[in-house]
Amino acid sequence: MKYLTLILILFSSSFLFSQPNCNSFLWEGDTIKYNACKLSEKFVDYYQFDMRGQAILDSCILICPYYAWPYFEKASTYIKSGNFLKWNYYINKSYEYDPINTLPYRASCRAKFFADYVGAISDINELDSLVSFDIGYTNGGTYHLNVWKGLCYKNLDSFDIAAKIINDHIQKQPDAIGFYDYLHLGVCYQKLEMHEQALECFEKQINYNDLSEIWYYSAISFKALGMHDEYNSSIKKAQEYLSNGQTLVGGFRTLDDEIFQYELDQLISN
Amino acid sequence: MISKINKTLLFCVLLSLVSCKTQQDSKTPRWLDDIQYDSTVDKKNFVVCDDNDIYQYFNLGDAIHYNGDKPMLINSFLENYDSTKVKKESGLIRIRFIVNCHGETDRFRIMQSDLNYKEKVFDKNITNQLMAITKALDGWGQKYMEDGTSVDYWQFLNFKIVEGKIVKILP
Questions:
Q1: B71 close to A (CB below 8 A)
Q2: Domain that holds residue A42
Q3: Is the Cβ pair B154, A77 closer than 8 Å?
Q4: How far apart are alpha carbons A87 and A84 in whole angstroms?
Q5: Domain range for residue B6?
Q6: H-state helical runs in chain A
Q7: Which candidate from A49, A82, A249 shows the least CB-CB separation from B32?
């Protein structure tokens, strides 16, 4: 699981607003944007936080103030230091000049780093209204944006709406079921006290990623249904997996429905 | 003779320019969002093991590397933050700091905004409490390189505050 997270972190940039092909601006006759774009290619020579790389982005903005990419890159650095003031400034500038490429990332970050679930839902809805193609994935690629919208509703305690959105996505796009979609859907059903449906989801989740969280949440539903043997075996498995590190792991943040030893101990003691 | 004096003067001027540049460079952060030492607020005895190479929190593993994990950290705020004695304000508060190679913390800095990410200043009863609790957190774990060397790293906590209450602690 940790390796999977590492791979996602390493390749997360590939799911972001990728650096454009500069020649496309030349073909459009925009030499100013072309020049800024060519300069921006030097940014990749530096670690993202390196001020020399940031200076290159600043120069790109000076050359072409309506070129979205350097704003986007600056925002994606500031988010990693939790600097919401600068992040908001740069991501909104990026949105101003390229909303379609910016909205998936802004929607992801608003929810992930600032618990701004209403803002994230609004971004996803706006993106949906702007494009005729699939709206795509969160930055990092873990969630389809439909599921991400469902998770935002889940965080707003609107579990019925969340369950409907995630379930609709799974039904409509069975080839685009994410690593943890069934886990989150199951937790939504559990919150709605629909324990049989929750357990069905947790069982399906095993085929995608067999995690401690599956067994922890299964244990809760088995307990609610009075299925003591299943509860005990689930607790045992949850502990075994947790001890082995077979859990949800987020390199940048604590993930939705991620559990720690504390939660498991609490469940056992209650 | 005059030419010699001129050359000497020119050399001195150039030398002073180079010196100025060096001084300026030493004050210019190498990494984005670095926090420089400020003798008026920072501990004088706080050791940063390698000031040139302070890692970001996500570089070496867990987002929150804390004894007892994130639930313990959250509990510290739940137990110690008193929302009854603050104004019912809402917004975001970031507290950023360094966890050094020994697991000690300092260079705490605060940032504040409303829920629309616009800069604001919160009621001091909110920010002072959050800062005091954050400074008292003593379970931060050390982070290590592959060769076993422990490193310094930047950590931040973002608090979402709604009507004076902490509703979320991130990341």
A1: yes
A2: 18-97
A3: no
A4: 5
A5: 1-28
A6: 2-10, 22-27, 31-40, 51-63, 68-78, 84-97, 99-114, 117-130, 145-155, 159-172, 181-191, 195-206, 212-224, 228-244, 261-269
A7: A49
Q: How many domains does chain A have?
A: 3
Q: What is the 3-state secondary structure (H, E, C) of chain B?
A: CHHHHHHHHHHHHHHHHHHHHHHHHHHCCCECCCCCCCCCCCCCCCCCCCCCCCEECCCCCCCCCECCHHHHHHHHHHHHCCHHHCCCCCEEEEEEEEECCCCCEEEEEEEEECCCCCECCCCHHHHHHHHHHHHHCCCECCEECCCCCEECEEEEEEEEEECCEEEEEEC
CA gap B83, B65 in Å, rounded: 27
CATH code, domain carrying A209: 1.25.40.10
User: Cα separation of B70 and A254, whole Å?
Assistant: 8
Q: Of A153, A135, A156, give the one whose Cα is nearest residue A144.
A: A135
Q: What is the pLDDT of residues B100-136, one digit of tens each?
A: 999 999 999 999 999 999 999 999 999 999 999 999 9
Chain B partners within 8 Å of A253 (Cβ): 63, 170-171
User: How near does any CA of chain A get to the CA of B13, in Å?
Assistant: 27
On whether residue A5 sits in a domain, the answer given is: no
Domain shared by B8 and B78, yes or no: no
Contact A51 B29 (CB under 8 A): yes
| B82 and B156 fall within a common domain | yes
B80 and B115 assigned to the same domain: yes
Considering CB atoms only, which of A83, A115, A251 is closest to B111? Answer: A83
Secondary structure letter of residue A66 according to DSSP: T
Q: Is there a single domain that holds both residue A157 and residue A130?
A: yes
Q: What is the pLDDT of residues A241-270, one digit of tens each?
A: 999 999 998 889 999 999 999 999 999 998
CA B40 to chain centre: 15
Count up the domains in chain B and report the number: 2
Place of tokens 């003031």: A85
Question: Is any Cβ of chain A less than 8 angstroms from the Cβ of B13?
Answer: no
ipTM of the complex: 0.90
Chain B residue with minimum CA distance to A119: B116
Last residue of a domain, one of A130, A154, A178: A178
In a domain, A173, yes or no: yes
Name which of B60, B115, B117 to mutate to probe chain A: the one with the most chain A Cβ atoms within 10 A of its Cβ: B117
Give the pTM: 0.89
Q: Which of A2, A3, A13, A49 has the most B C-beta neighbours within 10 Å, making it the best mutation to test the interface with B? A: A49
B148 and B101, same domain (yes or no) = yes
